[in-house]
Specification:
Pfam families: Acetyltransf_1. The chain is 30% helix and 33% strand. The protein is α+β, with helices and mostly antiparallel strands and 171 residues long. The protein has a domain at 2-120: Aminopeptidase (3-Layer(aba) Sandwich), CATH 3.40.630.30. A 7-stranded mixed beta sheet has the order 1-2-3-4-5-7-6. The longest helix has 14 residues, at 11-24. The protein is globular. The model has no long low-confidence stretch (mean pLDDT 93).
């Protein structure tokens, strides 16, 4: 397995992974018809990520992209010390440490970013594997919107807000 920053040619695979996850799980807030399918738009996001202080990672297994992580720093002056991320991993590659490895890369990268103090995320309460990984890496729950997401089958999930405060890691 290899974790690296995304390149333009990774855009098509990132879009495909997003589509796979949204159509096979209930871990994203978006409905299947709301997932962007525009590879050009994804290429633009990759291209702009460094300029804006963001980070897009991919995980490769046997030179095939099997996961991604997208971190966006908040552009607003009073919130620029924070950023949030989302990630996804192909089903057949979950549970083998890829998510943990991408998060370790993100945390190491974040620790050397000037002025970045907090990594935030939102995770649905039905995503127990992700919750376990986030807790293991030191993320703490900061809030919860109960029954925030209603799925097509009528079931609900809470939207859990979590964060990792980097100043604790820098000491």
């Amino acid at each position: 397995m290899r974790i690296r920053e995304a390149l333009l040619h990774d855009a098509m695979q990132i879009v495909a992974i997003k589509q796979e996850i949204i159509t096979t799980t209930s871990f994203f807030v978006s409905a299947p018809e709301e997932i962007p399918k525009d590879v050009q738009r994804e290429k633009l996001r990759i291209e702009e990520s460094k300029i804006k202080g963001n980070l897009i990672l991919v995980a490769e297994v046997n030179e095939e992209v099997v996961g991604f992580l997208e971190f966006k720093r908040n552009p607003m002056q009073r919130l620029n010390h924070t950023g949030s991320f989302g990630m996804g991993i192909q089903k057949e590659h979950r549970g083998v440490g890829i998510g943990t490895s991408m998060l370790a890369y993100l945390i190491a990268w974040a620790l050397v970013q000037e002025g970045l103090e907090k990594i935030c995320l939102g995770v649905l309460s039905n995503n127990e594997r992700a919750l376990h990984v986030y807790h293991k890496l030191g993320f703490q729950e900061e809030g919860r919107q109960r029954k925030q997401v209603r799925f097509e089958d009528g079931t609900y999930a809470d939207d859990i807000w979590m964060a990792l405060h980097l100043e604790k890691r820098r000491k």
